Amino acid sequence: MKKEFYRGDSFWSDYSEYKRIDYPINDEIIKQAEAILGVKLPSSLLDLMKIRNGGGLNYPYFMLPDGDTESIPYGGRARISDIDPIHFEKEDISILSSKELLKEVSLTGEFVVLWTDFHYWVVLDYRNRSQNPAVMYIAENFSTSTYDTTEWEYIKIADTFDDFLKQLFRVPPLDPK
Fold first, then answer.
1. Where in the numbering of this chain does the Knr4/Smi1-like domain appear (predicted)?
2. Whole-angstrom Cα distance, residue 141 to residue 148?
3. Which pLDDT belongs to residue 142?
4. In Å, what is the CA distance from 157 to each residue of 6, 67, 145, 167?
5. Mapping DSSP to helix (H, G, I), strand (E, B) and coil, where does residue 147 land?
6. How far is residue 58's CA from residue 36's CA, in Å, rounded to a whole number?
7. What gap in Å lies between CA 152 and CA 145, rounded to an integer?
8. Dihedrals φ, ψ of 157, to 5°?
């Protein structure tokens, strides 16, 4: 499988399966968001958000590190289809919705949610620091979860958001030849 890695251009996709609302973004909105979250968001994330405040990604894949569990595809390809925007509207999901989303599935920790489908999560991990967070993949362990409880597995993807960006790739369409 050929991979085209993200190298600083065309991060955001113009095509998305979901209709998205374009929320304005500026330094004051970012400052308010960081105050609400109680963390400093990575500057490289904020630079991308200033280009487009959330949306689908042109480079949606990353590889999970090798491991020895059966419940999630260690050593396999994982996906982050989009990144939630930063905004203060209550009726639409935002990075500021992180605490509510995590509480809904009983996930605890100082995380800022970039993307989730409620079984898999890509988060900024602020558990041990208030800036320069690691990027974590959190996956539901279907083999140990029950009707009443959900067990989670935590996999560090990258030490920083910048390192995470270097791991993102896309798979080009197959050449018909």
1. 24-167
2. 13
3. 65
4. 16, 12, 23, 9
5. coil
6. 29
7. 8
8. -90, -40
Please name which of 89, 86, 61, 91 lies closest in space to residue 76, comparing C-alpha atoms: 61
Domains and their CATH numbers in the chain: 23-170 (3.40.1580.10)
* Positions of the chain with pLDDT under 70: 1, 16-19, 67-75, 142-148, 174-177
Residue 3, CA distances (Å) to 7, 160, 169 in order: 12, 21, 6
pTM for the predicted model, two decimal places: 0.88
Give me the pLDDT at residue 106, please.
Answer: 87
What's the pLDDT score for residue 75?
Answer: 59
For 46, phi then psi, to 5°, come to: -65, -35
Mode of pairing for the β-strands spanning 169-170 and 111-116: unpaired
Strand partners, 75: none
The CA-based angle 99-105-110, given to 5 degrees, is 35
User: Tell me, what's the pLDDT at 28?
Assistant: 96
- Nearest 5°: phi and psi at 153? -115, 140
- In this prediction, residue 55 carries a pLDDT of 92
